[in-house]
């Protein structure tokens, strides 16, 4: 690895070269020149063979040096413009400082073309017992039958690993949604139809996840099922525990649920009238077809 200021690069064969602000360490490979502007201290290149190093004198205002690796192993270069200082723009995101987004030449559209579909996030929200997980599985089966690649991020499943360190306190519940939203964004960027199934009770947190994606790529599905219907189902026995006071802060009992105001899809179920999960899944599939997500 090579460190230049805050920038670390993969280079070729192991060599060391002392540099100062008035020197440029130049690496050669296969007759091509690899230049790195010196910033003082030592620069070490590690990697393949057939690489030599030399130093040349340059002025302090050397500008437009290009850091590249022509070792034939597929690495590409990074342009660095200097006028006495490193002008690479680093970022600080949250508690992470000195980070740089690395862009790849294979982009979302290339992956979508390969899969013949468009990546998006289908965010299924609703009370416990409203049928979110059942709906996610039915939708995944329907898409799979059509030759479309989908993946489910189920709230409980994510708490088995990714979010296993989080409790059900308000702050941790918000972090649970944030993490799931970020992972869903990556799946969508990979060209996959990501189905996120979580209670996600607050509009603000759902809207924050929506804002992570391009307009139209976050599809909110609201399982509009009355509390009494959800409680009568009670598949995990959680409502019973909440009513007995053994679970505190349970959504729908002693913690609020904020229904979506502008969900793309609303699936209503009332007591005595309930479509099958497969029928409801087809409504989502029809939406995806109309919006062009099932073709590249």
List the helices and strands and how they pair.
Layout: E1 2-4, E2 7-9, E3 15-18, E4 23-29, E5 32-37, E6 42-45, E7 51-57, E8 66-67, E9 78-79, E10 91-93, E11 96-99, H1 108-115, E12 120-125, H2 132-145, E13 150-154, H3 155-158, H4 170-189, E14 193-197, H5 203-210, E15 218-224, H6 227-233, H7 238-243, E16 265-268, H8 277-290
Parallel strand pairs: 12-14, 12-15, 13-14, 15-16
Antiparallel strand pairs: 1-2, 3-6, 4-5, 4-7, 8-9, 10-11
Protein architecture, described:
This protein has helices spanning 108-115, 132-145, 155-158, 170-189, 203-210, 227-233, 238-243, 277-290; strands at 2-4, 7-9, 15-18, 23-29, 32-37, 42-45, 51-57, 66-67, 78-79, 91-93, 96-99, 120-125, 150-154, 193-197, 218-224, 265-268. The chain has 296 residues and is of the alpha/beta class. It has two domains: 2-99, no CATH class; 108-290, Rossmann fold (3-Layer(aba) Sandwich). The longest helix is centred in the middle third of the chain and has 20 residues, at 170-189. The chain is globular, with a radius of gyration of 26 Å. Mean pLDDT is 80; it is low at 1-29, 33-72 and 76-82.
């Amino acid at each position: 690895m090579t460190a230049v200021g805050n920038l670390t690069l993969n280079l070729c064969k192991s060599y060391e070269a002392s540099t100062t602000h008035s020197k440029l360490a130049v690496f050669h490979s296969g007759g091509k020149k690899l230049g790195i502007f010196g910033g003082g201290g030592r620069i070490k290149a590690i990697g393949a063979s057939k690489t030599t190093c030399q130093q040349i004198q340059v002025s302090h205002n050397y500008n437009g040096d290009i850091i590249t690796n022509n070792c034939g192993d597929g690495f590409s270069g990074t342009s660095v413009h200097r006028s006495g200082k490193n002008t690479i723009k680093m970022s600080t995101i949250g508690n992470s400082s000195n980070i740089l987004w690395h862009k790849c030449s294979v982009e979302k559209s290339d992956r979508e073309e390969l899969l013949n579909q468009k990546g998006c996030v289908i965010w299924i929200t609703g009370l416990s017992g409203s049928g979110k997980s059942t709906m996610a599985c039915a939708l995944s089966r329907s898409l799979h039958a059509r030759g479309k690649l989908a993946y489910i991020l189920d709230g409980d499943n994510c708490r088995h690993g990714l979010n296993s360190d989080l409790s059900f306190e308000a702050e941790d519940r918000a972090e649970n949604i944030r993490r799931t939203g970020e992972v869903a964004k990556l799946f969508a960027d990979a060209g996959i139809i990501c189905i996120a199934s979580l209670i996600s009770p607050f509009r603000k947190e759902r809207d924050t996840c929506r804002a992570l994606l391009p307009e139209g790529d976050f599809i909110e599905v609201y399982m509009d099922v009355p509390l009494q219907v959800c409680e009568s189902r009670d598949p995990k026995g959680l409502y019973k525990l909440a009513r007995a006071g053994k679970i505190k802060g349970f959504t729908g009992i002693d913690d609020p649920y904020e229904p979506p105001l502008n969900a793309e899809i609303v699936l209503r179920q009332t007591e005595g009238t309930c479509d099958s999960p497969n029928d409801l899944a087809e409504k989502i599939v029809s939406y995806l077809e109309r919006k062009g997500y099932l073709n590249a």
